[in-house]
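Example record

One chain of 284 residues, shown exactly as stored in the release files.
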Amino acid sequence: MAINQAQLIDLLAEHRRRNWNGIQTPEWQEKIVLGLAQSQEPRILNRIRPFHALPDNPTILDLGSGVGNFVVSCRHQGLRAFGVELDRIGQNSAVTALGIASRRLDSTPFAAAVGEQLPFADSTFDLVVMDQVIEHVADQKRVLVEALRVLKPGGALYVACPNYLRFYEPHYKISFLPLMPKFLGSVYLRLRGRDPVLLGQLTYTTNWRVRKLFASLGVTRVEDLNCAVFLAKCRGRGANPSRKGRIVKALTEEPLIGKFVLWAASLYIRLREGGSEMLALKNA
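Predicted structure tokens for this chain:
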């Protein structure tokens, strides 16, 4: 029998306490637990919908499914969603993310696996999701190769990760120099009273790095979702733009400087945005 909401919150809190102690403050752990427990909507599907139409009854893989939020929300909507999780942070702990995920549904669609060697046949899934995962894996290129292998022709691969050109480290929730060398980062974290163990497991990611990885694999159809949404607002599509957006929009309509302004706006959003969101489409 699947666990109830109260049991889920207790397990999430215990998982955070056991595995994130010294990485995040208790206050941040509490906020994250409540956010995970309350998340019921598969927001990633809404995010990619304007850019890619999934087929009816799609088969979905969440690569690095954590405590199972995305898969559980998809399953509640009747979708065939599956998750794989290595649980690096929770290894050798009595309470793991994979263990929590497996208790959230009556029949578990979760499995323990590494992204570098997925236990699925070629061309199995219509959508593969890697949400805040690629910065944690040992071999980023190999994981993307595997994700593309199990993806059907014409399928979509969604990759979201931190942008380490920002002055912030999202796992520790503290200010951080962009692309700070790891040895300096470890010293800095210790001075801030934090355990640098997780920093050693991370590979710094940026918008450019993710694009370069896709290019090295011959993937040519890649959409930068953050940039696309921003530029759409500049061009007057979507929600009412802010004052800054209206100014940028007006400048983009000037015949002599419009193209340059669009390029500069695109560069700005890639540098400013806290996270990278890419949607790669596999050739049909």
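Notes: The chain has a mean pLDDT of 89.
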